[in-house]
Amino acid sequence: MAILDRFRRKRKKDIKKRNYAFKGAGTGNHFADFLSSSNSANAEIRPNLEILRNRCRALSRNNDYAKRYLNLLVTNIVGDKGIRYQSKARGTDGKLDILNTDLEKRFNKWCKKQYCTMSGTMSFREAQSVMIESLARDGELLVELVTVDNEFGFAIKLIEADHLDHNYNEKLENGNTVYMGIEFDEYDRPVNYHVLKNHPHEDATFKNRKKIRRIIPAKDLLHIYMKDRPSQVRGYPLMSSVVERLHNLDSFEHSAVINAKISASKMGFFTMPQGGDDYVGEDYENEFQPVMDATPGSFETLPEGYDIRTVDWQYPNTNFESFHKQVLRGIASGLNVDYVSLANDLTGVSYSSIRQGTMAERDHYRVLQAFMVEHFVTPIFERWLMTLMLQDNSFLDYRDDRFEKFSDSATWIPRAFHYVDPQREIQANINALNNGLISMQDVQNTYGRDLEEVFDQIDREKQLAKDKGIETAFEPFGNKSPVAPQVNGEENESE
After folding, report:
1. C-alpha to C-alpha distances, 179 to 45, 134, 230, 247, 251, nearest whole angstrom
2. What is the pLDDT of residue 480?
3. Which of 88, 143, 162, 241 could bond to 334 as cystine, CB 3.0-4.6 Å?
């Protein structure tokens, strides 16, 4: 007993006291396959960025759901008109500035493809689509702000993130540091971007071409990506978390199709009686592989004593659909979109469930719209406005107060979302208006319209109907006779 006691005492002495405050930090067997890292954001991104980007691009080309996701982003964030500009600058008297309309016309003209991009092949709406797709598929996009010889003296150039070499790291003589292609000063502020002139993986014609970098000042380049961690300097695709699931689902569907094809083939095997003659059927590939093709609607006679055994794979089975849906729901969650939208599956969907899913999905789209306005649309507009004011003093002379007046008053109207149930939601808006809970501009925001623009259009339509001698069936915002309130189902007599 003394020896056993000695071992027991030694064990108690050596055991360290464990902290069980956080179960997620446990070290039990069930955490044995839990891979984690204490690396910085950049140390995690740099070795994986190219692989992630290439796999997301492959999925976007060949995977139905990845392609659907990108289409959903473009449709719901950009739409058919893009994020549109409206000037709301006011004078000292509080009235709208007379230059607002002219400024809007000029910017809308610049948004056309012959002016917007340096190559003259992409409109501003198309550039917005490329930006949001690049964010989801590539994780980043470079936008160079270029001075060009056109009517406006300004254009943009979209550059794929591959041109920003993530393997280029160097300590410069001026004290700055280049990390993942970006030059930082002593305060960790980007000052220059070292951008490859050509794509690093161009076709075979340029395989042996020397890497030539050009330095673009940070003030002339927009590096668009979403940060997850404060020290992060490069972006990774929004699709990253679902790459494995999308690939596995693709493989699962492929295997299911093959199995179903085999199942539909209805294979069979001939059994030969003991001592019987070999039977090779109508045709054979070699002497060891008897083959007999089954022609639809035909009947074959087997030699005496022969029997046939069929193989019938029951596939796809009843578990296929439920498993497929479950995996796809996880993918939809990782992409922050509704399962119904991603899968185009309306089976068993009620109004309340689809409305809840749609509203949550649209909140995510609004977040991305706000990101686009802040990091893409606004900086481009401000550079356009500054260039316009510097080169055309007859229109807007450049002064700090004038620039701030028109830049700060810029209003961006994103793509609007249609009601899930128009009758219910319009009535809800009317009730909210009558009770002072929302404004008429709030209602117009749901349509992607400006209230003043709507009023002007209504006024024009009223005047047009009057000029044509047409009496409309309704009169929006017209004089309406008050309706007497009802008490116990009866109308009160008005005094």
Report:
1. 12, 22, 16, 32, 38
2. 55
3. 241
Which residues are within 8 A (CB) of 254 and not within 5 positions of it... i.e. 6 or more apart? Answer: none
- Residue 314 identity (one-letter amino acid): Q
Cα 411 to Cα 426: distance, rounded to the nearest angstrom:
25
What residues contact residue 438 under an 8 Å CB cut-off, 6+ apart? 429, 432
Nearest partner of 369 among 320, 412, 338, judged by Cα: 412
Going by C-alpha positions, the residue among 371, 61, 377, 67 that lies closest to residue 235 is: 371
Tell the residue number behind the tokens 């939601």, with chain if given: 425
Name the token pair of 47. 């070795």
Nearest-angstrom CA–CA distance, 412 and 292 = 71
Output b/e per residue, 85-105; b: 16+ Cβ within 10 A: bbbebeeeeeeebebbeebee
Query: Cβ(176)–Cβ(185) under 8 Å?
Result: yes
Task: Give residue-wise pLDDT tens across range 341-382.
Answer: 999 887 877 777 777 778 888 899 999 999 999 999 999 999
> How is residue 436 annotated by DSSP?
T
Task: Return the sign of the alpha-carbon dihedral for residues 341, 345, 346, 347.
Answer: negative
Q: Are 156 and 36 contacting, i.e. CB atoms less than 8 angstroms apart?
A: no
What is the reported pLDDT for 200? 87
Please state the domain extents for the chain.
Answer: 42-240, 268-310, 419-470
Those residues with Cβ within 8 angstroms of residue 189's Cβ, 6 or more apart along the chain or in another chain: 218
Alpha helices by DSSP H, listed for 89-223, are: 99-110, 113-116, 124-137
Q: Closest by alpha carbon to 185, among 163, 149, 211, 217?
A: 217
Tokens of 337: 């979109």
Rounded CA-CA distance 91/29 in Å is: 70
Could you identify the residue written with the tokens 């796999």?
55
CB-CB contact of 194 with 181 (8 Å): yes
Chain length of the chain? 495
Beta strand 213-217 with 221-224 is: unpaired
Please name the residue that has the structure tokens 């404060």. 230
**Helix pair 99-110, 378-391: axis angle to 10 deg:** 110
Q: What is the pLDDT of residue 97?
A: 87
Reduced to 3 states (helix: H, G, I; strand: E, B; else coil), residue 430 is helix
Phi/psi of residue 234, nearest 5 degrees: -130, 155
Rounded Cα gap, residues 132 and 140, in angstroms: 9
pTM given for the model: 0.79
* 115-142 tens-digit pLDDT: 999 999 999 999 999 999 999 999 999 9
